[in-house]
Design goal:
The complex is a heterotrimer of chains A (361), B (241) and C (401). Chain B is an alpha/beta fold and 241 residues long. Chain C has a single domain, classed as ABC transporter involved in vitamin B12 uptake, BtuC, CATH 1.10.3470. Chain C has 20 helices and four strands. Classes of the chains: A mainly alpha (361), B alpha/beta (241), C mainly alpha (401).
Chain lengths: 361, 241, 401
């Protein structure tokens, strides 16, 4: 249970494997009990591999991890906000949409010349500002939103649910006012569309085709996860956040202004949601004001699976949801959403506080 | 008596709808250890929490080093040099011992010499340096709580019942630590039920009953005056020897 | 008599009583007071949503259970009737089978949800219901073979409830209130003409039969819920709302009560869904299962006043009127703001929801008790002011010694 905070990023969970020899069955039940997230992940990978042939499985797995990466971006802010201040922000989806539209504007209107041009460098001239602008807009709106909407209802869950639902309506309507009610097509930058084919000469994985954009999502998701773990585990801010999740009052007694910390986390969380939104927008190649709301379900499943307030749990939750979506989607596309929610209900029955709980809800 | 570092005059405070403090007058002399005595529910802990700005102050004023801090937010009070060790100790159990201390050193990296001094005072902290603080024993947690309060030089320590539930050997270690702090001229306000512990350390003393201070003076005076002890005994001094 | 009907729970505020009377009379005489199919649908929707919102208030207002799965049950009812009539035929037994099947399914699902709340606490429960409702929505959308997917289904209403059926020969007189009011405002000198203009002849049809049946069911459900919350059962619910631990400590199995409330609310929502299908004659995921609809129910409940039940009447009426007519108002305002770049957009008829959202957030901050709660608070203040001696220095009560 202490995993969340004690383990350093490099320390592999395997480290905690039994020192003395034990029978495999004991080891397995121990693994299942103490490393529920890894157990579930392993179980899912193995089971799906048993059903799907290897080449397809690999493509699906990488796509699933890519989706998990984007989901992690979108969900991490919401889980931290809850962990730190037990604020449940149901308007989080609106920030995803907001980021998507802000970033999409850069790609489709302001720097479309660079985005459409062939060549990685000129594409990056469009992509990097798009990502930054999305995060910036979502962050700024997050600042205003926290001050106006959330701050007056600290500590009252019912009112939080109500005002953030209301706030979400307002934000989404404002998106429609600014960008219009119609869908906006966003073409992926030239160098991110298309796919890579692994050289035929490679054994086993030769000839497998991987979409470039998904690889970017994998890389970006992993990079942000690593960065966040570093911040959470190694920096003073990270220590403060973890301390704040345990006891707000003691953090204040030490001389830190918890509200400022929370505001910072809220802004960062909104910015990350925006970042996730623009990635999602590029992935779907179309922007709609409700795209964030549509993602909210997956986001909610992710944070419940992981355990509200846990970054590590959020990461594994995102991977699990991404993977199950792709695997089930491959076998029977119509059941993807049901399977996702089924996974959540199942895990809740098994572990009511999620896979890696940090707080006592 | 030395000049006061902290003065409470007519302090009233509520917790939810209950009036807990009914006008507390208390003077903490600079550079001395003041013991706050009184039975359970007399308002000792609430007094400390009120000084830290953690309760709803409804009347009176709190003056610290010449400034009125009655309406200050808690973090500002802490940064003005007041450290508070609550009765629950408030250790961050999921953080390591090191991380607990890193947080407590508000103004920057920890001072090596001071850390060494803390290790000498409380050797277990060095031993469990990178272990989660939640895994420490009760006495070790109390050591950590006090170490946290003194990891940086502070002007005033507020300590709530540090000996509660601890073994005699550990109580002795704590007493040594307080002796050393006294030598460093740190002002301390200590809430205690353990009269022997208080008598050994205290220079001045205040006794609370029913949300107000009913006696204050020097510890020497109270130690020698059996009659006064008898009178205040009913307020719970003797109950815990 | 009235005391028994209202279970002793009166509106307790004169303006509120007046407001409720206006709504009830308008609903009772609806087909005779409002001409046109749009007004007719609006009246029907109000009846449907009074049930939905009252059931939701039982959970949210009286027990502080936040559930986002209310539309799921609404949808089950709607699709139950739609599927039964399209498979069996447009007969009353088909409708009945549809409703029964839907109620059974809702019962099982809500029982499972209620039991889930054993394992997870309040805020988790809200999130879990949201996810479950979404899974259901996606299932209905995907299984287009049976549900028609995004396209939805037409509901084949029995002939006796349709426009072709004539229960009476001849017509009845009606007077269109909106036309009358408009006439009175714009040309008050021409009373006779205005009166003539607003008269219309109503040919009773199966639709009216349907409407009055719906109104009766809606009133029955509402009065039943009103009785329920004023019964010992209702008191326990409020005790759970105030302090679950204390209620548990007093010996009430709070889990049983919470589960019962979830199930009851689900069943009422299912019934309302069935009524919706019959009156709207078309169901699709968007009008029965969407998250937006869930938010609307939440808005109606909160704006009307949580934990008052009368709030359901006021809230759903206000909201549905706003939904139907606020766009017209904005369109009208829009004539004057044309050409002003951002304002033109902000006041566009499509953005009525923006204003409603803003109103909602402000009302949560400043009038958390909703319309009904606030009216009651004002009346209570006035009453207690009246009971005191008039203010003034000479009327100061003598100091007690």
């Amino acid at each position: 249970m202490n995993k969340e905070t004690t383990a350093m990023p490099m320390s592999d969970p395997i480290q905690e494997a039994p020192r003395q020899r034990r029978s495999p069955r004991v080891w397995l039940s121990d693994f299942q009990e103490n490393q529920a997230h890894l157990f579930l992940l392993a179980a899912m990978l193995i089971l799906s591999l048993a059903v799907i042939d290897f080449g397809t499985w690999l493509v699906l797995t990488i796509s699933g991890i890519a989706m998990g990466g984007m989901l992690f971006l979108m969900a991490s802010g919401m889980t931290l906000t809850f962990g730190l201040m037990s604020v449940l922000n149901l308007a989080h989806g609106a920030f995803i949409s907001l980021g998507a539209f802000a970033g999409g504007t850069v790609l489709a209107f302001w720097l479309d010349g660079f985005a459409g041009a062939p060549g990685l460098m000129s594409n990056l001239v469009a992509i990097i500002p798009a990502l930054l602008f999305a995060a910036f807009v979502a962050g700024i709106v997050g600042l205003v939103f926290e001050k106006l909407v959330i701050k007056p209802v600290y500590g009252d869950h019912l009112k939080q649910i109500l005002v953030t639902v209301g706030g979400s309506i307002i934000l989404m309507q404002l998106i429609e006012v600014i960008w219009g009610p119609n869908e906006i097509p966003v073409t992926r930058p030239e160098s991110l569309s298309g796919a890579l084919m692994l050289p035929e000469s490679l054994p086993v994985i030769g000839g497998i085709v991987l979409e470039k954009f998904r690889l970017l999502a994998v890389v970006l998701g992993l990079a942000i996860y690593a960065a966040m773990l570093w911040v959470i585990d190694r920096t003073r801010i990270g220590i403060l956040i973890r301390a704040g999740v345990e006891s707000r009052e003691m953090v204040e007694i030490q001389g830190y202004r918890i509200h400022l910390l929370f505001l910072g986390v809220f802004i960062a969380g909104s910015a990350l949601a925006g970042l996730g939104g623009v990635m999602w927008g590029m992935y779907k190649e179309i922007l709609t004001p409700h795209m964030g709301d549509e993602m909210m379900i997956s986001v909610i499943v992710v944070i419940i699976l992981g355990g509200l307030g846990s970054i590590r749990g959020c990461f594994y939750g995102a991977l699990l949801v991404g993977l199950i979506n792709l695997y089930i989607g491959f076998v029977e596309p119509r059941l993807a959403a049901v399977a996702t929610v089924g996974l959540m209900v199942g895990v809740l029955m098994w572990r009511p506080q999620g896979l890696i709980p940090v707080i006592k809800v | 008596m030395a000049e006061p570092i902290l003065t409470l005059s007519g302090v009233k405070a509520d917790i939810e709808q209950y009036h807990i403090l009914h006008g507390v007058d208390l003077v903490v002399p600079r550079g001395e250890l003041t013991v706050l005595l009184g039975r359970n529910g007399a308002g000792k802990s609430t007094s400390l929490r009120t000084i830290m700005g953690l309760t709803n102050l409804t009347g009176g004023s709190i003056t610290y080093q010449g400034q009125d801090i009655s309406r200050w937010p808690t973090p500002k009070i802490a940064r003005a040099g007041i450290a508070f060790v609550p009765e629950s100790m408030g250790i961050f159990g999921l953080l390591t011992v090191r991380e607990n201390l890193v947080l407590a050193a508000v103004s920057g990296p920890m001072d090596e010499a001071r850390l060494q001094w803390i290790f000498d005072l409380f050797p277990p902290l060095k031993k469990f340096w990178d272990k989660p603080a939640g895994t420490l024993s009760g006495g070790q947690k109390q050591m950590l709580a006090i170490a946290r309060a003194v990891i940086e030089p502070r002007d005033l320590l507020l300590v709530d019942e540090p000996t509660k539930g601890l073994a005699p050997a550990i109580i002795n270690d704590l007493a040594d630590a307080f002796e050393q702090l006294k030598e460093q001229q740190v002002s301390i306000l200590l809430v205690e039920q353990n009269f022997n512990f208080s008598r050994r350390l205290g220079q001045s003393v205040a006794v609370m009953n029913d949300g107000a201070v009913v006696h204050s003076g020097t510890m020497a005076e109270l130690s020698e005056n059996e009659e006064l002890q008898q009178e205040l005994l009913g307020l719970g001094l003797g109950a815990h020897q | 008599m009235l005391n028994r009907i209202l279970s002793g729970d009166y509106p307790r505020s004169k303006p509120l009583t007046a407001l409720l009377l206006i709504i009830v009379v308008s609903l009772l005489l609806g087909p005779f007071l409002f001409d046109g199919i749009r007004a007719f649908t609006t009246l029907g929707m109000i009846c449907v949503f009074i049930m939905v919102v009252a059931a939701y208030d039982l959970m949210l207002g009286y027990t502080h259970i936040v559930s986002f799965a209310h539309t799921m049950f609404f949808g089950i009812g709607a699709y139950g009737v739609a599927m039964a009539t399209s498979n069996i035929g447009s007969t009353f037994p088909a409708v009945l089978i549809g409703i029964t099947g839907a109620l059974a399914l809702s019962f099982v699902l809500s029982l499972l949800l209620g039991l889930l709340s054993l394992r997870v606490k309040a805020i988790f429960f809200a999130l879990v219901t949201l996810a479950v409702a979404f899974a259901f929505l996606s299932l209905v959308t995907q299984l287009y073979v049976i549900t028609g997917g995004e396209d939805g289904m037409r509901v084949r209403v029995p002939r006796e409830l349709g426009p072709a059926f004539r229960p009476l020969d001849g017509t009845l007189p009606g007077i269109d209130v909106p036309t009358l009011l408009k006439g009175l405002l714009t040309q008050p000198w021409n009373l006779g003409q205005v009166w003539q203009d607003s008269l219309f002849e109503l040919r009773l049809s199966g639709r009216n039969v349907m409407y009055y049946a719906l109104l009766a069911v809606s009133a029955g459900v509402f009065l039943f819920l009103l009785r329920l919350v004023n019964s010992p059962f209702g008191r326990v619910l409020q005790a759970i709302r105030e302090n679950e631990f204390r209620a548990e400590a007093l010996g009430y199995r709070t889990v049983v009560y919470r589960t019962a409330v979830v199930i009851l609310a689900a069943l009422v929502a299912t019934l309302a869904g069935a009524a919706f299908a019959l009156i709207n004659r078309y169901v699709n995921p968007e009008n029965t299962l969407n998250f937006e609809l869930m938010v609307f129910i939440l808005l109606m409940c909160v704006i009307g006043g949580m934990g008052t039940l009368y709030g359901a009447i006021v809230g759903s009426t206000l909201f549905i009127l706003a939904q139907t007519y606020l766009q017209d108002l904005l369109k009208w305002v829009g004539q004057y703001t044309d050409g002003i770049p951002l304002v033109e957009n902000l006041l566009g008829p499509g953005h009525w929801l923006l204003w409603f959202g803003l109103l909602f957030v402000l009302s949560v901050y400043f009038f958390p008790a909703g319309v009904v709660g606030q009216l009651r608070i004002w009346s209570m203040r006035r009453r207690s002011r009246d009971q005191q001696p008039p203010d003034g220095p000479e009327a100061e009560p003598l100091p007690q010694t």
